[in-house]
Design brief:
It is a multi-pass membrane protein. By secondary structure, the protein is of the alpha/beta class. Helix content is about 65%, strand content about 10%. It has a 5-stranded mixed sheet, with helices on both faces.
Length: about 375
């Protein structure tokens, strides 16, 4: 009998459906292993649910109810009718009433409002005389998407809403001029909006991953046991892990900003020293969060997965890609708990508006609070590992 016949006879003696049985056994094994890997299992379920929820409910490319301040230098029926008409457009929501031009400018500079409406003295009397006075609408154009939609629809929508109140001529004409002023980015150049936001986005991604992997790498290589045997405190371990990456993050930030200035013409109107200090605070906050992730996961794959789950809502709810003010309230609450939200406001305000520290107090305090919270959780969990 030839060797070929022996092989054929051996194949003939194999159990029926052996290939499918072995494949089925491997399939069952893989599902059991996947079920035990809770982080991967959560990624399978949570990522599509999170994306559908955020894109379906939170993301709005035509934002409405944008925060607006009003400077009424005269209190008149006509002025109130105009404000009501602007609210009826659904683009503007009047949240502040100021009494001086300085307050008006400070609200726009700090980002507390996106629009400001100024009704000058003698406005109603000038309208009655037919002088066609000017109504000033100032916009924070650092986010061209949020400002452009509202400003583009302002004229016709207000005219339509006021047809019944101020019908002059046939067809009706606007008895006053709407003078718009897009501040900080009058040309609506998207590069001036994107490049500063990219500083925070890239730093968030890299800092989270670097730190989360640094600790889990120690665990996988078995060097964590020797580290724990040393007379070193959890805080000292954390600072030793974080500080090198603070320097790395600072180099990254300088590289991105330098390229933005040289290639894209993005200005830095504010203090470079203030920008450097708050960038360092942001880097440390993200490193603390990444360190916290490293105390939760068991391997580097899980660290990457958890970092991506945190990065997705950060990039969608921070105001980097979509207007923050146009999101529903629940999405804004989530966004306020993300470091990237506050840093995007900070870096755009310093670079494009020339904002000073007094204009950035809220976002600075929020970043510091998030950093302290993440550090506390990280040290607590690492201490449990030591025990």
């Amino acid at each position: 009998m030839s060797a070929t016949d022996t092989i054929r006879n051996g194949e003939a003696r194999q159990p029926a459906f052996g290939f499918w049985r072995r494949s089925y056994a491997m399939l069952v094994k893989e599902f059991i292993q996947l079920r035990r890997d809770r982080v991967s299992f959560a990624m399978i379920i949570m990522l599509p649910v999170m994306q559908l929820t955020l894109f379906g409910y939170a993301i709005n490319t035509t934002p409405r109810n944008l925060p607006t301040a009003v400077l009424m230098q005269e209190d008149s029926d006509l002025g109130r009718s105009i404000l009501k008409a602007m609210e009826n457009t659904a683009y503007f929501r009047f949240t502040r009433e100021v009494h001086t031009v300085a307050e008006f400018d400070e609200l726009l500079l700090s980002g507390k409002v996106l629009f400001g409406v100024e009704i000058p003295r003698g406005f109603e009397r000038a309208v009655r005389r037919g002088d066609k006075p000017a109504l000033l609408v100032a916009a924070d154009a650092t986010d061209p998407v949020a400002a452009g939609s509202a400003l583009g629809a302002l004229g016709p929508l207000v005219q339509s809403a006021l047809d019944h109140d101020l019908h002059i001529g046939d067809p009706p004409e606007m008895p006053f001029e709407i003078r718009t002023h897009a501040r900080y980015n009058p040309a609506a150049d998207s590069r001036l909006n994107i490049v500063p936001g990219l500083v925070g986005t890239i730093l968030t991604m890299t800092m989270l991953i670097f730190t989360a992997l640094s600790v889990t790498r120690e665990i996988e290589r078995g060097t964590m046991e020797s580290l724990l045997s040393m007379p070193i405190k959890p805080v000292e371990v954390m600072f030793g892990k974080i500080i090198p990456y603070v320097i790395v993050g600072f180099i990254q930030a300088a590289l991105i900003i330098g390229i933005g200035i040289l290639l894209f013409g993005v200005p830095i109107l504010g203090s470079l020293l203030l920008l450097a200090a708050l960038t360092t605070l942001f880097i440390t906050t993200n490193l603390s969060i990444g360190y916290t992730f490293s105390t939760i996961v068991q391997n580097q794959l899980q660290a990457m997965q958890l970092s991506m789950m945190f990065f997705l809502p950060s990039i969608l709810l921070s105001g980097f890609m979509f207007p923050f003010a146009g999101m529903p309230v629940w999405a804004q609450y989530i966004g306020e708990g993300l470091p990237l939200t506050h840093f995007v406001r900070i870096v755009r305000a310093i670079m494009l508006k020339g904002a000073a520290m007094q204009n950035l107090q809220y976002d600075t305090i929020a970043l510091a609070a998030l950093m302290l919270l993440a550090m506390t959780i990280a040290v607590t969990r690492f201490r449990r590992t030591l025990d």
